[in-house]
Design a protein that fits this description.
Number of domains: 2
Structural class: alpha/beta
Function: Zinc chaperone that directly transfers zinc cofactor to target proteins, thereby activating them. Zinc is transferred from the CXCC motif in the GTPase domain to the zinc binding site in target proteins in a process requiring GTP hydrolysis.
Strand order of the largest sheet: 3-4-2-5-1-6-7-8
Strand content: 25-35%
CATH architecture of the largest domain: 3-Layer(aba) Sandwich
Radius of gyration: 21 Å
Protein name: GTPase
Family: Belongs to the SIMIBI class G3E GTPase family. ZNG1 subfamily.
Number of strands: 14
GO molecular function, one term: hydrolase activity
Catalytic activity: GTP + H2O = GDP + phosphate + H(+)
CATH topology of the largest domain: Rossmann fold
Shape: globular
Distance between the termini: 43 Å
Number of helices: 10
CATH class of the largest domain: Alpha Beta
């Protein structure tokens, strides 16, 4: 059986620096064979003159990286890369997909869950979102920009050298309120250690929640209007009833599945020595049993929701009903 190819989705608003970052990735002497799919809406194509105007064009660069430009369906481009890989025409072991500045990353992520053959050949590693520190306040007035932040496994701040330190700090705090799971890093003129971008394992079923447990700091600069996207973390040390949990999740996804951008949990199930881990994107989710709880370890259930106009009270009430005792949230 072939090892699935890790896929990194790169998103961010127009001018945030996605193309600059891609150019750095493609020109760097890193020894990796990376294929990059970019579309025609990027602010400055990597090799648009060389690639031409065909619906799908593929070329191999000098350092062994592969560049694919698409003017149509992403699924078609993914299959074309596999056909050429299997035929020995090109070689790559990682894939980066650049979304357009105005694109919702959800359909791109869902592609790797819905199509069975693509699910076998590719594995979604992480969603990386670039945020322009200078223009973030303006960009984040738009719901799609907030959604790009909400979907992210890692947030990259660009142009921090052009922004005042207090503005950057306030932006960090705001991004943490929107998405408490994503680590925040700084990218300088497209340069960053590739280890920060690859092998993120943001979609692996594991007990790593990636959330900050420190209380949120008071923002230095308040946004003009409350952000639509926000993070809710729920906790309880009381064992959960698995049947009630199943009903709770089914009802939540049925009523609010389109609002739940990303969610993840590590749960202590009554009568079970192993952790139950789950995570999802919109209405698509998976779960599995993980390692056993260790002796002396606090058996705490934690659920993280990143959602658009999060129905917090409804979620808290439903979560409390999973056990006989109260649940605390942060």
């Amino acid at each position: 059986m072939q090892t699935p190819i890790p896929v990194t989705v790169l998103t961010g608003f127009l001018g945030a620096g996605k193309t600059t970052l891609l150019k750095h990735m493609l020109k760097a002497e890193h020894g990796l064979k990376i294929a990059v799919i970019e579309n025609e809406f990027s602010e400055a194509g990597i090799d648009s003159q060389l690639l031409g105007d065909e619906p799908v064009q593929v070329m191999t660069l000098a350092n062994g990286c592969v560049c694919c430009s698409i003017h149509g369906d992403l699924t078609r481009a993914l299959y074309l890369l596999l056909e050429r890989l299997d035929a020995g025409e090109i070689a790559f072991d990682r894939l980066v997909i650049e979304c357009t500045g105005l694109a919702d990353p959800a359909p791109v992520a869902q592609t790797f869950f819905i199509d069975e053959e693509l699910r076998e050949r590719y594995i979604l590693d992480g969603i990386i979102t670039l945020v322009d520190a200078v223009h973030a306040e303006l960009h984040l007035t738009q719901a799609i920009a907030q959604a790009q932040v909400g979907f992210a496994d890692r947030l990259l701040l660009s142009k921090t050298d052009l922004a005042e330190p207090e503005v950057v700090e306030a932006l960090r705090e705001r991004l943490a309120r929107i998405n408490g799971r994503a680590a925040i890093r700084v990218v300088e003129h497209g340069r960053i250690d590739l280890a920060e971008l690859l092998d993120v394992r943001g979609f692996n079923l594991n007990p790593e929640l990636g959330i900050s447990l420190k209380p949120a700091l008071r923002p230095l600069l308040k946004p003009a209007t409350p952000d639509r996207i926000s993070t809710l973390v729920l906790r309880t040390e009381t064992p959960l009833d698995i049947d009630r949990l199943s009903d709770f999740m089914n009802e939540l996804l049925e009523e609010h599945g389109k609002q739940l951008l990303r969610y993840k949990g590590v749960l202590n199930i009554a009568g079970e020595e192993r952790r139950l881990v789950f995570q999802g994107v919109l209405k698509l989710y998976g779960f599995d049993w993980d390692a056993e709880w260790q002796d002396g370890e606090t058996r705490e259930s934690v659920m993280v929701f990143i959602a658009d106009e999060l129905p917090e009270e409804e979620i808290r009430t439903g979560f409390e009903a999973l056990s006989c005792e109260g649940v605390r949230s942060i």
